[in-house]
Amino acid sequence: MTNPSPTASNPFEANSGDDRVNTPVPSNNSLASLTALVANDLDAVNNLILERLSTDTPLIADVARHLLLAGGKRLRPMLTLLSARLCGYSGPHHIPLAATVEFIHAATLLHDDVVDGSELRRGKKAAHALWGNSASVLVGDYLFTQSFQLMLVAESLEVLRVLSNAAAVIAKGEVMQLDASHHLEISRDDYLRVIHAKTASLFAAAAEVGGIVAKAASKEVLALMRYGEALGMAFQLIDDVLDYTGGGQAFGKELGHDFAEGKMTLPLILAIQADPSHKEFWQRTIENQQQAEGDFAQAVQRITAVDGFTATRLLAERYINQAREALADLPANHYRDALADLCDFCLQRDF
Amino acid sequence: MTNPSPTASNPFEANSGDDRVNTPVPSNNSLASLTALVANDLDAVNNLILERLSTDTPLIADVARHLLLAGGKRLRPMLTLLSARLCGYSGPHHIPLAATVEFIHAATLLHDDVVDGSELRRGKKAAHALWGNSASVLVGDYLFTQSFQLMLVAESLEVLRVLSNAAAVIAKGEVMQLDASHHLEISRDDYLRVIHAKTASLFAAAAEVGGIVAKAASKEVLALMRYGEALGMAFQLIDDVLDYTGGGQAFGKELGHDFAEGKMTLPLILAIQADPSHKEFWQRTIENQQQAEGDFAQAVQRITAVDGFTATRLLAERYINQAREALADLPANHYRDALADLCDFCLQRDF
């Protein structure tokens, strides 16, 4: 998991973007049938999350519930549940592991919002906008520590290594992303390394631990890891397109958030590299963060002019193909079909 | 570890205050002889910390080195080292566990500084003042995740439970402290619960895992935990006195920082409760955070007038007595003597 190039054998993930929708979920939501397949498990995960947020410290309960109960796809925990079931697991430990994954993700979102200054998260005011940055930082820490307590339940050192490694890689990815902001010289490979770390690593770990807890053969565990990794890369690529082209506004996502933050995502990188004649525009808006009305529309126009969105979507499709290929090493059953459906969802989603 | 009252059998800790001194260490420093006793171990811990900070992400290395290499007492890792040696341990795992404890502490300090807005930390400009809040939040997360990776090295589920529980309790304590800020009605017991969570729990865990890794008898492990807990409570109580009365300024500590932040520490609580006639003063300065020149001096005078500092020091002494009593259940050797010396240090320190 060190070279995130799509030609290598490692695929990837997405988390800076909000992958949960605010209710109501659209009726054509292809996630519905997948969710139904592990409905009981998902209920158990949600109950465990609720239980863990029932503390005698109201601020923790308020902030964490605001985020975790905002209505979400629970995409990462679903990977753990489907992977465990796919490998025939019938024990109880996939539930706390799925909750672990969601807590890691939620903690990252809380800290991301502080870093980004986002006003909205999951269609609601972001926690830091309601309770302040301090509460978001400290409750994020609390969720991180809860995730570490939950992952102990399975009593598996291998599970602990995979999940704690993912958490470390995500943290590093977040710092890399911060470091890369506003730097026009960031390359496509730099970007792929960042999204591999901050997003694909958790998708990969979520799927992998499902296999480990089911004591699946190492070939199958590896296949799950590769599937999750590739799915995560595609997910983030699409996320970074949607941040410019929209579709998620009905669900409370802010359009142009990455542009406003000077985040170096692939559509932007492609536009900057393809047309040096507009360098002054990018220097002013991204490097120096001096943005005026109309700049975002102009950025969208310039990315479109060099087919930046199309190229990003094509790369996402290549990762999705890798994800599908990884599934071939796994037993054919309803759960594997569900993982295949998730591939479609990741490409087709507009929120 | 749920009732932090000094009459109960659980003593306690300190971390919001900076417990590291900037070099040079004063010549009468009673820590020197203790440090000498585990000098090789401490070197190994420092080398491991350095190694873990050698990443290809410069921002992580810069921010974390700035904090972790600022020159420090390494009090918490020393507890782990001394406890392990006290119980006859001769293996290698106390080193990564001591580093774990230091990483948890360092992560907390980075996030504390963001929450408090402190300008100084360990005699140097605080990281967030140099690199911004975002870097402090994200590098703090990175240190947290490093701590979780390091604690896996011992391959002991018991060690993992103790340390991950301590991290969770600290995180909760930090939120409790934030929640309590500016609230004049906070009681002595509320305060003791906060410092038990945010400080004593890590001192307790640091000592406890030293015993666990040495496979000490459960009675000895319990004694180490109680010792660390009581020492930590005393440490934080003294820290909260020093924040008003000073002594640490030569080492870069800010005087009056807790007052400026409206932090409800025991000296303040005692003054507020003992003399209701000054309620308006406390409402203005602590509840409404409207502070003017001369207010801090007036606060010090009012706490002194009701013997608030003396009472806080007396309570610290009671905890130190508990810490000494806990040592009676441990084998008598140089390492136990060192832990006893640490009791003196915690009471007598003026930095």
Name the features.
homodimer; Farnesyl Diphosphate Synthase; two-stranded antiparallel sheet; mainly alpha; 2 strands; 68% helix
What this model shows, in words?
- 2 copies of one chain form a homodimer.
- Chain A has 351 residues and is an all-alpha fold.
- Chain A has a domain at 31-234 and 320-345: Farnesyl Diphosphate Synthase (Orthogonal Bundle), CATH 1.10.600.10.
- Chain A is built from 16 helices and 2 strands.
- Chain A has helices spanning 31-37, 39-53, 58-68, 75-86, 94-116, 127-131, 133-151, 157-180, 188-213, 218-245, 257-261, 266-274, 279-287, 295-305, 308-327, 334-348, and strands at residues 120-121, 124-125.
- Chain A has a two-stranded antiparallel ribbon with strand order 1-2.
- In chain A, strand 1 (120-121) and strand 2 (124-125) form a beta hairpin.
- In chain A, helix 15 (308-327) packs antiparallel against helix 16.
- In chain A, 58% of the residues are buried.
